[in-house]
Amino acid sequence: MNNINIGNAGEYFVAGELERRGFTVGVPMSNVKDYDLLCANREGKQFAIQVKTTADGRNKWMLAQKNENIISDNVYYVFVHLHQLDNPTYFVVPSKVVAETISKGHQQWLNTPSKSGEPHKDSNLRTIEFDDNTYLNRWDYLTD
User: Fold this and answer.
1) Residue 114 class from Cβ within 10 Å (0-12 exposed, 13-18 middle, 19+ buried)?
2) In the predicted model, is pLDDT for residue 90 greater than 70?
3) What is the predicted pLDDT for the residue at 129?
4) Domain count, the chain
5) What is the mean pLDDT of residues 121-144?
6) Model pTM score
7) Cα-to-chain-centroid distance, residue 127
8) Short-list 40, 51, 124, 128, CA closest to 90
């Protein structure tokens, strides 16, 4: 699969999982700047969902500098790992946690010399990685 197929598959897996859990989900017909899905829980509370999908061997996703500034109680990220198409893994993370994590991680990276000993050059790219299960299947964030 190419990156577009991987991203599309992730969005539809998340939409399906949310519907399976009783949410109402809307998939915008055109590209929206900061989110991929809109959903509402049973109580009518609305959320914007940004979906990031990977199909490689690690729980690591690429983000951009702009994601450091997307902070709202109603914005969540769902990081999808497509180990197998029939059994994806979901990490549900509040936008505030994502913003803080990628900001601190990027600063650490800038403060660490490269393999050649030179300082890293700043860039727009950010990464986030999950080594534990803290955010694994935390769909309860959307119901609390």
Assistant:
1) exposed
2) yes
3) 94
4) 1
5) 92
6) 0.92
7) 10
8) 51
Domain encompassing residue 90? 3-142
The chain-wide mean pLDDT, for the chain, equals 92
Residues 41 and 76: beta-carbon distance below 8 Å? no
- Of the two residues 17 and 42, the one the predictor is more confident about is 17
Residue matched to tokens 């690690």: 58
Q: What is the DSSP code string of the chain?
A: --HHHHHHHHHHHHHHHHHHTT-EEE--SS--SS-SEEEE-TT--EEEEEEEEE-SSSSEEEEEGGGGG---TTEEEEEEE-SSTTS-EEEEEEHHHHHHHHHHHHHHHHHS--TTSSPPPP-SEEEEE--SSTTBT-GGGGT-
Residue 85's pLDDT is 67
Residue 95: which of 141, 136, 144 has the closest Cα? 141
CATH number of the domain to which 134 belongs:
3.40.1350.10
Q: Strand 46-54 relative to strand 75-81: parallel, antiparallel, unpaired?
A: parallel
Nearest in space to 67 (alpha carbons), one of 90, 31, 36, 100 = 100
